[in-house]
Amino acid sequence: MLTEKQLIRLAPWLVILFLLILWEAICTGFKVPEYLFPAPSAVWQAGLARWEPILMHATQTLFTTLAGFAIAVVVGLLLGIAVGLSPLVYKALYPLLVGFNSIPKVAFVPVLVVWFGIGTVPAILTAFLISFFPILVNVATGLATLEPELEDVLRSLGASRLDILRKVGLPRAMPYFFASLKVAITLAFVGSVISETVASNLGIGYLMMAASSSMDMALVFAGLIVIGAMGVVMYELFAFFEKRLTGWAHRGESSAL
């Protein structure tokens, strides 16, 4: 008999297995053409048969995603600190940042292609543009919600604004920061793949566009699964670091999402 903890650990795998079986049964039972909706068995075969190009393009997508994400972390953290600490900066920049974030990032891809040409750079910049805003908002929220009473006590003890930021503000914002990283890394994959489908000759996005043009839907779905798997791995990696570095902010293991 499985314990509750074992069942919790197995639950994601059981759900995935159930969905795969259901997917296979629907495709087989209704005789769905492979060029419309391939069964998991066909996707698996396509992945095995073309694992080398899939690996090459997946490596490119992972590189562009991580590069854009790294830039987003630096820019989002710095802007988040500025917005969270200064009401003046908040009033000046926040409306512009919200308006910028409301623009679909795919609209920037043609502009980036004109500026930098087709290739890696537009994918990196698109990943950055789509992923820095959650980091900025969460860091700013963590700093802006610091209790005023705590600030007053620290100032009465002689602490400067820098001391408050370094010893209280930033640690207080760490749970918000790690929560934003888990969201931003998934968005970074979206940005890089969008750019690859429009303006690149490498990457999973390009592979999927090339496969769809020849109606090779099994390869398209293999690319989708690879992107999803990379996103899950990176999400879990940041969740691991969040749990280790900000465990004090969570009362129980189940609260560390």
From TrEMBL:
A GO-annotated cellular component: plasma membrane
Subcellular location: Cell membrane
PROSITE patterns the UniProt entry points to: ABC_TM1
Domain of life: Bacteria
Keyword Cell membrane on entry: yes
Entries under PANTHER family matching the protein: ABC TRANSPORTER PERMEASE PROTEIN HI_0355-RELATED, ALKANE SULFONATE ABC TRANSPORTER-RELATED, MEMBRANE SUBUNIT
Record-given protein name: ABC transporter permease
